[in-house]
From TrEMBL:
Domain of life: Bacteria
Keywords annotated in UniProt: Heme, Iron, Metal-binding, Transport
The keyword rRNA processing is annotated on this UniProt entry: no
Stored Gene3D superfamilies: Globins
Stated family: Belongs to the truncated hemoglobin family. Group II subfamily.
Coiled-coil residue windows: none
This protein's name: Group 2 truncated hemoglobin YjbI
InterPro entries noted in UniProt: GlbO/GLB3-like (IPR044203), Globin-like_sf (IPR009050), Globin/Proto (IPR012292), Hemoglobin_trunc (IPR001486)
Presence of keyword Iron: yes
Length: 139
């Protein structure tokens, strides 16, 4: 993640975004809520259409990725190597609409799982940089 860890005030200890989210269980809760919303809400139909019928693999991959991206365990890298996000998403047409659907879905998921407003804003800034970079069509 592109944000610096925050000091806890204790010498030699930093709190990561992973810690602020609440660790693996909370990252899993966030990812599950994200995919539940994507699967159920009509406003995310375009985003949902880019995914396979079963979201199980997508759920796991985002969970593994976010754990490491937030400063926790590097589950994704241990399984697949470098994330190469843009290359992995290149087969899918990702434009402004898909980016914005992803961002809105994640914003709702973060609200629903009860992340603090400050943490939500911090994460949304970082998510936007990545989501915008993933765009590969002009529309």
């Amino acid at each position: 993640m592109s944000t610096e860890p925050e000091s806890t005030g204790q010498a030699g200890t930093d709190v990561t975004a992973f810690d602020l989210v609440g660790g693996e269980a909370r990252v899993r809760e966030l990812v599950d809520r994200f995919y539940d919303l994507m699967d159920l809400e009509p406003e995310f139909a375009g985003l949902r259409a880019l995914h396979p019928a079963s979201l199980d693999g997508s759920r796991d991959k985002l969970f593994w990725f976010l754990c490491g991206w937030l400063g926790g365990p590097n589950h994704f890298i241990e399984r697949f190597g470098h994330p190469r996000l843009r290359a992995r998403h290149m087969p899918f047409e990702i434009g402004i609409s898909e980016r914005d659907q992803w961002m809105r879905c994640m914003a709702l998921a973060m609200q629903d799982v009860g992340l603090s407003e400050d943490l939500q804003m911090r994460l949304m800034q970082a998510f936007f940089q990545t989501a915008d970079w993933m765009r590969n069509v002009a529309r």
